[in-house]
Predict the structure.
Amino acid sequence: MRRRRALWFWVFVGPFAAGLALFTYVPLLWSVGLSFFDAQNTVTPTHFVGLDNYTAMLEDDAFVDSLRTFLVFTAFIVPVTYLVSLALALMVNRVRRARAFFRSVFFLPAACSYVVAALVWKMSIFNGVRFGLANTVLGWSGGDPVAWLAGTRPPWYWLVIVTVRLWLQAGFYMILFLAGLQRIDPVLYEAAAVDGARPGWTVLRHITLPQLRATSVAVLLLLVINAFQAFDEFYNLLSDARGYPPYARPPLVYLYYTALGQGQNLGLGSAGAVILALIIAVVTLGQARWLRLGRTDADG
Amino acid sequence: MTMSRRALLVAGAGAGAGLLAACGSNNGRGGGSSGTQLSQWYHQYGEPGTQQAVQRYAAAYHRARVKVQWRPGNYDQQTAAALLTDSGPDVFEVNGPTLDQIQGGQVVDLSDLPAGVKDDFNPAVLTPKTHDGRIWGIPQVIDMQMLYYRKSLLKDAGVAPPTSLDALVDAARRLTGSKVKGLFLGNDGGAGVLGGTPLYAAGLQLVTEDGAVGFDDPAAARTLGKLHRLYADKSLLLGAPADWSDPSAFLQGLTAMQWTGLWALPQIEKELGDDFGVLPFPPDGSQGRPGVPVGAYGAAVSARSRHKDAAKDFVKWLWVERTDYQQDFALSYGFHIPARISLARKAARLRSGPAAEAVRLTTDHGYAQPLLWTPAAQVAYQDALSRIITGGASPERELRAVVRKVAGELERVKKKP
C-alpha cells in the first residue's frame, strides 16, 4: 500500500519536479558556473577567469546605475502600492451594495498583461504629441505637450512607470487585504464601539492595522521582490529597436542586454545575475527579520 | 498466437519509437529520406509580399528542401541565442555578423561564394562583413538613412534646406510652431538612430583603419553638443506614437523634417507627391563632410549547421547567382538598393527623383558601421549620446569615458585569434 502511494506520488509530482530541476535548477547552476568563465558568445566556455566578471560588473557604472534606478523605483512603488491597495480594500469592504462588482473592477487590471498595459500607456495615454490623452488634458489648462518618456528634466518617465505598475497590481494586493479584513472578528469592532472608539482613524490604527499585520508583512515582501524583478513595463515603455536609454534602466533590463542582447557576454551577465540574486536574498531576509516574519506575538 | 502483456508493451514501445523517428525526420534539420532539409531564418519585414517572395525563392531551389522561418520580435537577439544551440537555423539573415560571432566560430567562412563577382558587391556593405580578408556574410540589400524635409513648410518659413549642422539646428528652431516641430530624430532625441553619423559628419570615424578609436578629438564633443541644442530649443518631436523608422510623424504633419530610411520613400512619395526632398546628415566644421549611414542584412551560415556545405550552396545560389531574385527582393516589395552595383545601376525605380538622389547620396557619402565597433562599444556610446542630448551632460566628459571603454573593447577583440 505504501509503495503504491509512493508510486502515485512520483507519477503526479515527478514530472513537475523534473521540470523544475531541468528548467530552473540546472540553468541556475550553469549560470553560476558561467559567471567564473570568459563566456563571450558561448555557453560552454573553457577560459576560467575567477572573480573577474564579478569585479567588472561591480566596477561597471551602468550596472551600479541600474541598482540605483531600482532603489528609487522601490522606494516609491512599495509604499504607494501598499497605501493604495489598502485604501481600496477598506473602501470596498465598507461598500454595502455591489461589493462583488467593485472588487472585480479593481481586480480586473491584474489580469492584464504588463506588455499590453505598457504599450497603451506609451502609445495612447502618455505619448508626447499634442493629441495624447495626458497632453490633451494638459492642453485644456493651457499647458505645453510634455515628452513623458523622453525627457530627463523633470523625470516625467517615473510618473508613467509608476502609474502603469500601480494600475496593474493595486487590485491584486487589494484582494489580499480584503481577505485579511474579512478575517477580523467583528466582535473587536463592537467592543471598541462600546468602549467609545469612534469609527475612523482610531479604529483603523488600534484594531484594523494590527489585525492586518500578517497580511501587511506578506504584501510588503511580495512588493519588494516584485520591484526587484521589474522588467516588462520598463522594457516596453522605454526600449526601441536600437536599444534602451541609460536612465530608468533596472538591473534586469541591463543584464538582458549584456547577456542576451547582441553583446552575448554570458559570463558577465551571469555574474550580474548572481550579484542581483544575492542582493534580493539579503534584502528579503533583512526585511523578514525586521518585520518579524513567522513570529507570533507569543514569541516576543 | 497469444502475446504476453510484456511483449505487447515492448511491441507498442517499438512502434511508438518508429513513429517518433518518422516524425523526427521531418524536423527541419535534414536526414530524412527526402534529402537535405535546410532551415532559413528571416526577420519580419513590414512590406507585404516579402514573406511570400522568400518562400517562392526557397521553393525554387531543388538541391535541398529549404524551410523558411519568418521570425517577428527581437530578431538579432533570437539569432544570437540560437547560434549557441543545435536547434538554430542553417542559413539566416543577419545585421552583421558581429566580430564576436566571427571570432567565436559561430558563423561559417563564405569567402569562396562570391568568387568572380566580388567586385560587383558594393564595398560599403561588403567591407563590414569581411574580417582578416575573409567574408562572413553575403550582403542581400542596402538600406540607408537620410533626412526628409517638407518643401512647402520650409518655403513658408523662409528656410533653405540645411547644408550644415548649424543650419539644421537653426532650421529646426524656425520650423517649430505650436502644432509642428522642426525635426524628428526618434523618440529618444536621436541617440539610438544617429549612432556614429554626427561623428562622421564632423570628419571623424568610430574606428580608424588601423583599429584605433576614431573620435578622440575635440571636434567630436563640439558636434555632439550641437545635438543637445536641438533638444534644448524644443525643436525636436519627442514621444510620437510611431518611432523614427516609420514616416507617420512626417506624413501627419507633426514634423517638418524627419530622419528615416530609404524604405519609407515610396510611402512618402505616395502621400506627399513632390512636396519633399532628401538630404544627407549635414557636415559640421571645417573638416566635416555629409554623412549617410548604410547597412545591409546579409546571409550567413551557422557553424552548428549539420549541412554547412548544402547551406553554402544555397546561399551562393540565392544571393550570388540568382540576380533576378535579388532584384525582385530589393525593389518589388520594400524599397532597397540592391547590394550588387550592376543591379543597382539597372533598376529603373532608382533612376529618377528622390530615389536617384538617395542612390547618389549612398555612393558619395555612404559609410557603414565598422566591424570592430562591438555591441559593448555601441551601448557605451549610445548611453553617452543620450545623456548629452536629453540630459545636457558635458560632451567632453562623456566622450572621455566612451573613448576609454571603446579602447578597451578594441584591445579585447584584437587579442582574439
